[in-house]
Write a structure and sequence with these properties.
This protein has 271 residues and is an alpha/beta fold. It contains 12 helices and 9 strands. It is 47% helix and 13% strand.
Length: 271
């Protein structure tokens, strides 16, 4: 099922999308396919997998620690692609990779995207790739039927937002706050006001999904009720992994249960 199909199906049922993030290879590569399956069993609609990188610019301490664990476990970009291929044999949910452009550059952009397509990758998020330098990347990705998911922030101007949307397929990723990833107690008022400001520009093009700091059911419910089409939750799941490194069964059950609680909060759309 494509990302577009997921949002279309959910919209018919007045649901928002639950998009969940974990770092691939954390705590080891053998865990990640099982974690993906637990997320989908809990109700996650789209899975986002981070390729661990030695110098991440957007990650807070929780996800940085996960990246360190994954790298120490021997995780490579090729490992992540194999994980996606394995997971796709058991789940139908789209899988999106979050990576930095240096990884594509080293493998060759066209080569990376061809391999990603063969392994079942549905979309890519590249935080350090501006649209001004993304024309060739987008061309290669389109050829491989891989969605190009770009980011916007509360500081993004109307003119730049329109250009970003032109480059975006799958969904537009709204970074809800200034700063890095991480869990937060309360949803910033800036988040809800930015959703309302951006929604008129995305309603006829790409769905709008909100991430960074979304860590509770009430956060998910709030962003969906304020007009977002999806909520992205990452650090809270990574923290569950961190807290259960020595207990795989407990890790998987907690991941699934937490996903279920978050998914229930997406069913308030338009109600």
């Amino acid at each position: 099922m494509s990302i577009k199909d997921v949002f279309r199906r959910l919209d018919k049922h007045s649901e928002g999308a639950l998009i969940t993030y974990v770092t691939g290879g954390d705590p080891t590569p053998k865990h990640t396919p099982k974690i993906i399956e637990a997320l989908v069993n809990g109700g996650a609609d789209i899975i986002e997998i981070g390729i661990p990188f030695s110098d991440p610019i957007a990650d807070g301490p929780i996800i940085q620690a996960a990246g360190d664990r994954a790298l120490k476990a021997g995780t490579t970009p090729q490992t992540i692609l194999k994980i996606v291929n394995e997971a796709k044999k058991k789940v139908d949910a789209p899988i999106v990779l979050l990576t930095y452009f240096n990884i594509l550059f080293k493998m060759g952009v066209d080569n990376f995207l061809r391999i990603a397509n063969r392994h079942g990758v549905d979309g890519l998020i590249i935080p350090d790739l501006p649209i001004e330098e993304a024309e060739k990347y987008r061309e290669y990705a389109h050829k491989q039927s891989i969605d190009t998911i770009f980011l916007a922030t509360p500081a993004t101007s109307k003119y730049r937002l329109e250009n970003i949307i032109d480059f975006t397929s799958g969904f537009l990723y709204l970074v809800s706050v200034f700063g890095i990833t991480g869990t937060r107690e309360r949803l910033d008022q800036l988040t809800t006001s930015t959703i309302k400001k951006f929604k008129p520009f995305t309603s006829e093009s790409s769905p709008l999904a909100v991430g960074f700091g979304i860590s509770k059911s009430e956060h998910v419910r709030s962003v969906i009720n304020n007009g977002a089409d999806g909520a992205i939750v990452g650090s809270a799941f990574v923290k569950i992994i961190e807290n259960n490194l020595d207990n795989s069964s407990n890790l998987l059950s907690k991941i699934s249960d937490f996903a279920m609680s978050l998914k229930s909060a997406t069913i308030t759309k338009n109600q």
